Amino acid sequence: MRTSFLYRILLIALTVTFCLMLSGCYDARETDDLAYVIAIGLDKGKTNALRLTLQYAVPKNIGSGGGGGQGGGGGGGENPSSITTVETPTLWSGLNMVNNYTSRQVNMAHVKALVISEELAREGIERYLHAVIRSREFRPSTHVVVSTRPAHEYIEAAQPILELNPAKYYELAFRSSDYTGFIPRINLHDFYFNTESLHQQGYAIISCVNQYEDVNEFNLNRSTFKEKGHKGPFEGDFYAGDVTRVGDVKAEVIGTAVFDGAKMVGKLDGEETSYFLMSAGQFVHAYWSFPDPRVPDRFVILDVRQNRKPKINITLANDRPFITLRLNLEADILSIQSGENYEAPGQLDILEAHAEEILKKGTLRTLNKTAHQYRSDIFGFGRHARYMFLTWKQWEELNWKEIFQNSEFSVSVDLNIRRPGLMIRSSPAVSSQGKTQ
Fold first, then answer.
1. Centroid of chain to Cα 307
2. Across 61-83, average pLDDT
């Protein structure tokens, strides 16, 4: 009887103790005590192994409509973010150093972009990638970006004009993949998974600071149109930093950084990125300029969409993959500069066949470049190849990442033009001297 009474007293005491512990906030951190980082930059250091750049939000300037100076808009004359750079042996020791001179404790729970310099990426980032993945603070949705110039320069140039909230700026800038096709969609979780998987390799967004200050400086020395055989540059024939434009925001993103393991081995420009997204089934839609099949110096502009995943078939012969890819696309006509009546019965087939041939050649060129030059399966073809094996051991022994460089490709494109826009028939303009082209 006495034992039962003591047991009840002990049970009540433990219950009260646990309730007090669960309802307490002994380890809570007030939001006013934290500095929320929105972008991290990693560069090779001059006095130490790593140069760490942090961009963190300044809530009082965001809330009051600040953002003067480079930040644009608002009347407060103060930037909605602040940037600090420190040289350090490791990423986490750098955070410790920043915490030592920042009034608030640095918090990584809202990081939108991990920006890595191309110099560091080509040496390999495995040690820094593991340091980020192991932490509970970093979100898996963080965007992975490679800057062709030092990462701190890109972050300093990425000052929003249309957005008061710098975190929102990064979210919207990287979302452009859905309506331009010039950059891939990649987050920290998927990037890390690809670097260590057996069936796919990693890729990241390419960023840079635009090189032009005035329109008179425009040139095409670093455009990629010549190596593709184009007569002139199309909208995607550039890497980040080389686009012929000027504006208040100097930071830009266009292109894909190709990785082999945790080391960058090459890059794709904007157009090649679109072909990569189509082949991987990640392309959404974009406005696309095609030379007119009858008037080559004029253009036909289509709104191209990928509503279905590509059909992929893979066979193996003597450790040589034979990959057949079929792309299913739809498009709407946005403009026919020549005035040719491609909407007429039987004429639309000419335009579709012409666009299909251009897309087929571009896709083949991108596949061969990535497989034979960079030796990297960023498309994820290995995911389809592994179903050919009965056991995981057989799949491992194949060593897909090694034999992918021997791949041969066959591509077909099925493009259906669904709508001609608000015009049902194109015709030339009529002047006092008659019809003109």
1. 20
2. 57
